[in-house]
Amino acid sequence: MKSGFFRRIFPPPEFLSTPATGMDVSDESIHLVELVPAPDGLRLGRYGSEKVPEGVLKEGDPQDMPAFVELLKQLRKKYGIKFANVSLPEQHGYVLVVKIPKMELKDVYSNIELQLEEHVPLPASEAVFSYDIVRGLEPDARDMELNLTAYPRAIIEKYVEAFAQAGILPLRFEIEAHATSRCVIPEDAPGVYMLVDLGLTRTGIYIVRDGYLRFSSTVNLGGNTLTKALARELKLSFDEADKLMQANGLTSDPNDPQSTQIARALMPTISAMQDEVNKHYMYWNTHTDNYGKQRPPIDQITLVGGLANLPGFPEYLEANLKTHVNMANVFVNVNPLEDYIPPIPYNYSLTYAPAIGLALLQS
To answer: What is the rounded CA–CA span in Å between residue 159 and residue 162?
Structure first.
């Protein structure tokens, strides 16, 4: 996207030229990606994924600081991390479009600070925010439209402290939705995209217009919800149910009664996910913007995240939403794939989108 969150708050020192590692932090795992320059563009350097012990983070908020610091220390030693661009869990963040009267650029920050509580349920003293000016710089403009991102200061301070104790310098922090969007939407691509990020514990729904993240929402439904439902239905362990789900998904073979049983067990949660996507899809396409103008319609829906690999799920969404649904290419802004094949399986790469987007901040 146009800028990294907290670029103004944590600007990287000019003398630092070492590529920063993109670190996508969640309750279950930390994904890491390093991009290195090459004659034909960027290439995938070190990458990996490490599990986060249960209880260390809750919705991304550190609950056990000593354990979190120790985990970061282990990652620093294993992957040689010195500098990092780090994701922040979007459950605690706010992404919105704000309209203000046109003013001098030097006055915008203080203006937003004074009226921040009108837009987000956070006192200005307890929030950190950043913004991009989407429109309003034209000589004849009367208003300015800003993309505003705000985050609780207390959680950011925990991250800063943990990374400092672990010996990793965080150059930038960014909400996961921004990083994912930067990764999977072609740079400077016009139009409107809906991204559906299907994770283990939640589903992120993002709308990007002309390169700017305009909307972000999180639904507490994910791969674990599906696996638990299947485990109950078939009386299996969690791991056994997960393997069956990944292999069969929503596909149903008339000659295989178990495949029908699997699809039936998954369908209530899948249907609930589809309803959430459809709700946001319809709202965008039927409501006007801040200027009372009809918004341009969503051009396509792009799936990313581990659950995007679920057999039959893209086809199910496309049939029910009656719009084009495609799978993300997480390397679209890294390197043309005609002459370069990244050393990572495609299905696995879909879980690395936020980390790649964070690493792209250094490119």
So the answer is: 5
CA 89, 30, 303, 250 torsion-angle sign: negative
Backbone dihedral angles phi then psi of residue 293, each to the nearest 5 degrees: -100, 150
> Are residues 156 and 128 in contact, defined by beta-carbon separation less than 8 angstroms?
yes
User: How far is Cα 301 from Cα 108, in angstroms, rounded to an integer?
Assistant: 34
- pLDDT range class, residue 74, cuts 50, 70, 90: very high
The alpha-helical segments, DSSP class H, found in 188-256 are 223-234, 238-248
Distance, CA of 200 to CA of 183 (rounded, Å): 19
CA atoms within 13 A on the CB side of 204: 31
Question: 84-95 pLDDT, tens per residue?
Answer: 999 998 889 999
Q: H/E element holding 50? A: strand 41-51
Diameter of the chain by CA atoms? 69
Q: Which helix (H) or strand (E) holds 172?
A: strand 169-175
User: How sure is the predictor about 78, in pLDDT bands with cuts at 50, 70 and 90?
Assistant: very high
Dist CA 24 CA 19 (whole Å):
16
How many C-beta atoms lie closer than 10 Å to residue 256's C-beta? Answer: 12
Mean pLDDT within 153-161: 96
Domains, the chain, ordered by start? 190-328 (3.30.420.40)
Beta bridge mates, 128: 151
Contact 52, 26 (CB under 8 A): yes
Whose structure tokens read 């070492």?
18
Distance CA 300, CA 193 (A): 6
The Cα–Cα gap between 322 and 150 comes to 34
Q: Six-digit token pair at 281? A: 């899809």
Q: Please, where are the H alpha helices in 59-152? A: 65-79, 105-115
Cα separation, 223 vs 238, in Å, equals 11
Q: Are 141 and 290 in contact (CB under 8 A)?
A: no
